[in-house]
Each structure stands twice: as C-alpha cells, then as structure tokens.
C-alpha cells in the first residue's frame, strides 16, 4: 500500500462524517486536523529529502543570481567613483591658512 493512497482518500471524503458520537462540527474539525497533519507529514518528508541532497536547479539559479549581484555591485562602485571624480577640485592655494601665527615679525 503506497502512502499517497491514504492521502488522496483523506482529502477526498471526511472519514469522521456520520460518526454517531460526533457532531457535524466536531467531525469537520477532526477532518481538518487530519488533513493538516497529513500536509505536515508531507512537508517534513520533503524537507528531509531536500536537506539530504541539494537541489541542483536551485543551486544553478542561486549561482546565476550571485553573478548578477556581483555585476550590480561592480556597476554601483563604478557609478560612485564617477560621481566622486566629477566633483570640482578645490583651489589648493587657499586650502589651508595658518591664522594663529604672526608672519609679520619674520
């Protein structure tokens, strides 16, 4: 018996419907809980499968993204450098003036 068959049966019909000890609401809540439990079991199985072996497709896509991000970073640095180089260079003759010394006595 495969694990997919109970899952399909569980999601198709409510196994708790018509139970003599359960109200309609209780049967519905139990069914929703059973479906949630099955989804969590499938999620756990899938995450275990992914953690055991890397997803080659995902790795290729992440590598392509890494290359693009490197290109974006390089272009950003070049743009910043261009903006810095476009700034006007100040007049070096008045860049520093010693106002504390009295040069008239020399």
UniProtKB/TrEMBL annotation:
Compartments in which it is found: Chromosome, Centromere, Kinetochore; Cytoplasm, Cytoskeleton, Spindle; Nucleus
Keywords: Cell cycle, Cell division, Centromere, Chromosome, Chromosome partition, Cytoplasm, Cytoskeleton, Kinetochore, Microtubule, Mitosis, Nucleus
Molecular-function GO terms, alphabetical: microtubule plus-end binding
GO biological process: attachment of spindle microtubules to kinetochore; cell division
Location, primary (coarse class): nucleus
Cited InterPro entries: DASH_Dad3
GO CC field: DASH complex; microtubule; mitotic spindle
Similarity annotation: Belongs to the DASH complex DAD3 family.
Protein name: DASH complex subunit DAD3
Origin species: Sparassis crispa
